[in-house]
Design goal:
- The protein has about 325 residues and is of the alpha+beta class.
- It has 2 domains: about 120 residues; about 170 residues, Jelly Rolls.
- About 40% of the residues lie in helices and about 20% in strands.
- The strands form 2 sheets. The protein has a 7-stranded antiparallel β-sheet, with no helix packed on it. A 6-stranded antiparallel β-sheet has the order 3-12-5-6-7-8, with no helix packed on it.
- The chain is flat.
- It starts with a helix and ends with a strand.
Length: about 325
């Protein structure tokens, strides 16, 4: 290589290093922006909750003050009548006093109290209708989904509506093709998604074993290998439950979850802009585990595995909630 050629190569390498430095600088700036924006958003939300607490506390104090004033007025009236009762007087005055001091005539303003209680109850109902905010937000991303019978393992029965899958010990007479699982009890959704925010809820009531998650269509369908199990390779993300234990799987790595609750519904949230897959216990909206994929390289299918019936202990279907 001549001196001139070496100089060109060196210049090219210098330019490339400068480009990399410039790109790293921009990435660092973007990282700082994301952290700052996220911190600002958290601060704003916390302030709103603090404001709501202040408003509710103030309203509670006002309501209690009104009730206290009613109580004080009634007690003051009683005390005054009791004082009058102790004063010596003639027989006619005693009769008048007995009539005036009838305890049945001294009452709290129950109409006002009932009204306050009613208004408080209405406020509680309104607040409950608005929260939890996360649940309302996620449900706004609910997406229609139907299971694809042509992808289902031959020992899975898919409901006519395509909203549930259950195990049968009978190998069904179904067409075999490249898209059908033949070793693991999986079924995929007909639909796939590659944009926006998506949310589904899956009913796992009465089951002691199941798997569910999201996968690219490239997941292996054939052969007796773990590669076709959900979460065992890079193309799928999975939450697995077996006999009280939860594990989140991706890339063949299991993440045991310190959770003892047996949830009846599991939520699956996917954010394509954020590259995020999150599993939740819908019963009380408990976050279970989140995978940060960074960026999805293909569209995703919802994937379900109801598992074997385990001598009748796991015969219930796994079902998509509408």
């Amino acid at each position: 290589m001549t001196g001139s050629e070496m100089e060109k190569v060196q210049n090219r390498l210098i330019r490339q290093r400068e480009m990399i430095r410039s790109r790293l600088k921009k990435l660092n700036i973007k990282q700082s922006e994301i952290k700052a924006n996220s911190s600002a958003m958290r601060g704003s939300i916390m302030k709103k909750y603090e404001e709501m607490r202040r408003v509710l506390d103030e309203d509670c104090r006002t309501t209690m003050a009104l009730l206290e004033m009613e109580e004080m007025a009634a007690l003051h009236k009683l005390e005054k009548l009791m004082e009058e009762s102790c004063v010596t007087m003639n027989e006619e005055r005693v009769k008048e006093l007995l009539t005036a001091t009838d305890p049945g005539l001294i009452k709290l303003d129950t109409a006002k109290s009932d009204q306050l209680l009613g208004l408080s109850n209405n406020l509680l109902l309104f607040i409950r209708s608005q929260i939890p905010i996360t649940k309302r937000l996620l449900k706004s991303y609910s997406t229609e989904v139907v299971l694809d019978p042509s992808s289902a393992h031959p020992k899975l029965i898919i409901s006519p509506q395509g909203d549930s899958a259950s195990f049968t010990d009978v190998w069904q007479d179904v067409p075999d093709h490249d898209g059908r699982f033949d070793t693991t009890l999986n079924v995929l959704s007909i639909q796939s998604w590659d944009t926006g925010h998506r949310y589904w809820e899956v009913d796992v009531t009465g089951k002691i074993y199941w798997e569910l998650g999201l996968t690219y269509s490239s997941i292996p369908r054939k052969g007796k290998k773990e590669a076709s199990w959900l979460g065992r390779r890079a193309e799928s993300w999975c939450l697995e439950y077996f006999d009280g234990d939860y594990n989140a799987w991706h890339g063949g790595i299991a993440h045991p979850l310190p959770i003892s609750t047996c949830f009846h519904r599991i939520g699956v949230f996917c954010s394509f802009p954020g590259g995020l897959v999150t599993f939740l216990g819908v019963d009380n909206m408990t976050p279970l585990f989140s995978f940060c994929a960074g960026q999805f390289i293909d569209s995703l299918h919802l994937a379900l595995c109801p598992g074997h019936d385990l001598q009748g202990t796991n015969s219930k279907p796994i079902a998509i909630c509408h």
